[in-house]
# Entry
Amino acid sequence: ETAVFQTPNYHVTQVGNEVSFNCKQTLGHDTMYWYKQDSKKLLKIMFSYNNKQLIVNETVPRRFSPQSSDKAHLNLRIKSVEPEDSAVYLCASSFRGWDAEQFFGPGTRLTVL
Amino acid sequence: GQQVQQSPPASLVLQEGENAELQCTYSTTLNSMQWFYQRPGGRLVSLLYSPSWAEQRGGRLTSSAASNESRSSLHISSSQITDSGTYLCAMERSNYNVLYFGSGTKLTVEP
# Structure
């Protein structure tokens, strides 16, 4: 199956803990993204990687750090989570350049107590 | 400020069989646009991607766009209950293919 996969589906944690989310795409794309969807369903870009290289960082707090081992994987680590980090984190992938339709994973819902 | 404005804002209620038009306007020059659909708790599904500014999909969903007006429309004809969900438009304006999203329109189709 070719798609974008994310784990875990849900994660509940307490303020100050560290969490990690995984994303893998089997679409052969060279660019991956992390978006944050808040409680009002607003979607905002966080990071973009092209061939393991960070190319976009949209004013994200330093406790967020993306990690890419190869162009098919992009993980997200959050050190010391805050209550405002509660959201759905969506991973996406595309080709870089002209034909850049993006495909999304199912998301990871983070709840910070 | 918000770079992508979506209308109708927030929500739209239709009777089954009615047509709808959703619109997005952008505050800057775009490279491409993309329309998405999302059910509550569901995955974001790509409905339409248009680097060339005009495309038609299926028999009930069509999109028109005017790059010189920075505007895109999604037309839903003969709406069905299963069309209910949130529709989001997104624009790509940089060389990095990043998407900037509208706030979404929640469509409810009633019998």
